[in-house]
Design a protein that fits this description.
The protein is an alpha/beta fold. The protein is built from eight helices and 16 strands. The protein has an eight-stranded mixed beta sheet with strand order 1-2-4-3-5-16-6-15, with helices on one face. A hairpin with a 6-residue loop joins strand 1 (about 50) and strand 2. Helix 3 crosses helix 8, helix 5 packs antiparallel against helix 6 and helix 7 crosses helix 8. Bound molecules: nickel (II) ion (NI).
Length: about 400
């Protein structure tokens, strides 16, 4: 057993304690007050760090070394979700209707304890390390844009991050160069017709019939306007209209989402939604208003950094630990970091069906396998200390 592995195992009980405290005190995006105070208090007790608050509920710690070298940043998100927890755990969320159902409690605990281990290795490091505990990943436009605006990435050479996932078993690292996550957009379509008596349709412009035609025509955005190798998904998930069985309503509202992996595809989808709505509505004598709201962009992993990290994972955990991913659907505001400097983000397995840790994310029974915290710490410390090791 090597030295780092032993240090990580010795650190694991503290990491679990931190994770359970954070889990118990789950807080929503932009409201992470107890969470950020806890993290700040813990960081204050570590020697050699400079602390700051980029925003009221985010925390950054900087570890400066004696020698020049790369300036690296690593980010953990810290917010929870509006879900009532259904797990029977002694550390279940004490905030009604708020739950860490995406593993961000684990991300924060991994990074906090990696900082403890890295601070102890400071004499052997060069350059500068920035640890970003970021608020509000779950609620677009998200906390990333705010902390970046506050300067957390100024003069940074490379940025890293990870997400625990119940789609991979504990101990596997999901890796992909280039596009990792989807761009996640929302559209809202308002169809305006002319309401009236159901027995006199000739006096009306029926927005429900027009809306139904729009829903069907939108299915051709993917099948007829994109080339077969372009991946995207479009779903109409809400349709609202009407108030009585004998009244043709005046309006209908349709809401849905588009997920894509390429800016060209994303732009085509938006343009075709607008054209189809305008055309179908005009043919019916109705009007359609389209509001297309861009969510997070795709995460782009730097190819060279990805190759390097893949090698590090294979050296540290064995080549079987590396799992090559296809692009995944969930979005993440880490995308804004890798638009500033080269970045690498991975998916860290935290599923163990034997422990009941295999419910999907954003589910009231989501439960991460705490063994994954050790993998997360060891990866983070190995990554950052190798990336800024003295030559
Ligand atoms: Ni998440």
């Amino acid at each position: 057993m090597n030295e780092l592995h032993q240090q990580v195992l010795a650190q694991l009980p503290q990491c679990i304690t931190d994770r359970r405290w954070l889990h118990r005190h789950a807080e929503l995006s932009f409201e992470e007050r107890e969470t950020s105070d806890y993290i700040e208090r813990a960081l204050r007790a570590i020697e050699g760090l400079t602390l700051s608050r980029p925003t009221p509920t985010s925390v950054m710690a900087v570890l400066r070394t004696e020698r020049s070298g790369r300036r690296l940043a690593i980010r953990a998100d810290i917010d929870a979700l509006p879900i009532q927890e259904e797990n029977e755990l002694e550390f279940r969320s004490c905030h009604a209707g708020v739950m860490h159902a995406c593993g961000h409690d684990g991300h924060a605990a991994i990074l906090l304890n990696a900082v403890r281990l890295l601070a102890a290795r400071r004499p052997a490091l060069c350059g500068e390390l920035r640890f970003i505990f970021q608020h509000a990943e779950e609620t677009p436009p998200g906390g990333a844009v705010e902390v970046i605006r506050a300067g957390v990435l100024d003069n940074v050479d490379e940025v890293f991050g990870l997400h625990l996932t119940s789609t991979l078993p504990t101990g596997r690292f999901g890796v992909r160069g280039g596009v990792l996550t989807s761009a996640t957009d929302r559209f809202e379509i308002g169809v305006s017709g002319k309401g009236g008596h159901s027995s006199m349709p000739q006096e009306c412009v029926d927005p429900i019939v027009t809306g139904a035609q729009i829903i069907l025509a939108l299915q051709t955005v993917l099948s007829r306007s994109l080339c077969p190798s372009d991946a995207a998904v479009l779903s109409v998930c809400e349709a609202h209209a009407g108030s009585a069985y004998n009244i043709i309503p005046g309006d209908m509202q349709l809401i849905g989402s588009v997920r894509s992996y390429d800016e060209r595809v994303r732009k085509t989808a938006e343009r075709r939604i607008r054209e189809i709505c305008a055309g179908v509505a005009a043919a019916a004598g109705a009007q359609a208003q389209v509001n297309y709201i861009r969510g997070y962009d795709s995460i782009h992993n730097d190819p060279a950094l990805t190759d390097w990290a893949r090698g590090l994972i294979a050296r540290t955990f064995g080549s079987k630990a590396v799992c090559e991913l296809s692009p995944i659907a969930p979005g993440d505001d880490f995308c804004y970091y890798d638009q500033v400097c080269p970045g690498f983000f991975l998916e860290l397995g935290a599923a163990n069906p034997e422990k009941g840790s295999d419910a999907p994310h954003h589910n009231a029974r989501y439960r991460l396998d705490e063994d994954a915290l050790a993998y997360g710490m060891e990866y983070t410390v190995a990554l950052l200390s190798e990336r800024c090791r003295l030559a």
